Amino acid sequence: MRNNFDDQLAKLNEMIINMGAMIEKAIKLAINALVNQDETMAKQAIAYDDEIDEVEKEIEAMCLRLLLQQQPVARDLRAISSALKMITDMERIGDQAADISEITLFLIGETYIKKLEHIPIMAEATAKMVTDSLDAYVRMDLELAQSVIDSDDYVDDLFDTIRNDLIELIKKDEKNGPQAVDLIMIAKYLERIGDHATNIAEWVVFYITGKHVED
User: Fold this and answer.
1) 0.85 cut: is pTM over it?
2) For domain 2-209, which architecture applies?
3) Backbone Cα Rg of the chain
4) 34, 121, 178, 180: which has the highest count of C-beta atoms within 10 A?
5) pLDDT tens digits for 160-188?
6) In 3-state terms, what secondary structure has residue 109?
């Protein structure tokens, strides 16, 4: 019985890794679409969100089966409950990648009011947070989970830089306003992705230690 349960937990980890790869791809598609003003990639990122939603449902169903059909001990319960919490954040990351691409579709054909310097850097940082948080879960790596939590300040600082730069452009010329607001919203979605990655890492800490990180 225990061997079967362990096999199911291994399968659960595999499904989470696959979902993680999907949201990483969604972020990459969304940002590449923005930088290159690529309509096809933007639409792919939007469509990809439906696939991510379906995988979330599959993982949720598997977690519930494990809870109902097996007799998990405390550590197993933490693994399953953490997975359920994590996939909620992962699904929202997919939503935000799609939201970025929705804005991108409105920006296609426009000349950007400034070079997109910090947004791609911010996207890369948040994508790394997502990857590392999921790696920390699979490897039960407390140090890696903590590094993700610590990285959130860096992403927040990038958001502040982007927002302040764009506000200055609005002050210089109010015609920059509509696009500047769109770019600030994109940066805000990236900040939220970082927040969700932080949430995932905090649930990893709970999984390993039994204690949830206090804000």
Assistant:
1) yes
2) Up-down Bundle (1.20)
3) 19
4) 34
5) 999 999 999 999 999 999 999 999 999 99
6) coil
